[in-house]
Structure formats: C-alpha cells, structure tokens
Write a sequence for this structure.
C-alpha cells in the first residue's frame, strides 16, 4: 500500500467512526505501513521521530487499541510479547524463527480449508484463525549448520 492510499484509508476509517486524525495516530500508522515485520509497541515508538513534541508510550498503546477496535491492525502474541501489523485476513500462517524472532507470512489456502472444516464438521464457527509455526529461518538454520 502506498503512503497516499494508506493515509486516505486511515483518515476515512477514523472519521467514519467519529475519531480525529491526530499526530500520534498518523505517526503510529505510518510506522506500521512502512514496516515489513511485526512490531512491538516499543518497536513502533522507537521508529517514531517525535521531533519537538515526542509521542509517549501510552499514546502508542491507546492508538494500537483503537486501530484494533476499528479492524485496521492485528495483534499477535509471541510468548509474552504482543506485536502488531496491519490487518490482513486469515490466509497467512505466521512462521516464527525461534532464534531471531523473524516472522514470515506464508500465504496458503490451508487456513481457509481449516475454517471450512471446522464449520462443516463441528458446532463451531471461527471468528479469527491465527496459525503460528515455530522453527528456524533460513539464515539461522544455515548459521547452525556452519557451527556444527
């Protein structure tokens, strides 16, 4: 998503629900749009250039909570750490490196197949499916083989 369309999407989403577009909200959004990885609240704060009026950690948390409520972002829990990313549907499996914590989105039809199977074979209708597979990324796996 380019920066212009991302800004328009944020403005429309906030205003359609009666919220203002504040500097803190815009800064958090810009960081998430530009990120190619899951970020913790502290990671987002670290990437914000506060200039003369720095944004504090509580503003980041409030902004993330609002964005999640509006369906703009997704929260993922990896151990005790919450990480954030722009919203995407359930089609991605999160591949998490146990060594460096890299998160790779692997798009697959398997998640849709799982949803269909649950709906057809059980008395359960899933709202959100978050599949996480822990292993080692290519870089960490190759380092491990070089040390052996």
């Amino acid at each position: 998503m380019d920066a212009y369309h991302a800004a328009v999407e944020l403005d429309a989403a906030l205003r359609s629900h009666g919220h203002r577009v504040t500097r803190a909200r815009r800064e958090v959004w810009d960081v998430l749009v530009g990120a190619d990885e899951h970020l913790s609240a502290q990671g987002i704060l670290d990437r914000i250039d506060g200039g003369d009026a720095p944004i504090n950690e509580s503003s980041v948390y409030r902004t993330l909570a609002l964005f999640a409520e509006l369906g703009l972002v997704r929260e993922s829990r990896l151990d005790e750490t919450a990480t954030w990313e722009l919203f995407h549907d359930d089609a991605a499996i999160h591949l998490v490196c146990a060594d460096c914590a890299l998160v790779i989105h692997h798009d697959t039809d398997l998640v849709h197949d799982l949803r269909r199977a649950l709906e057809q074979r059980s008395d359960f209708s899933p709202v959100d499916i978050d599949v996480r597979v822990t292993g080692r990324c290519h870089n960490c796996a190759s380092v491990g083989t070089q040390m052996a």
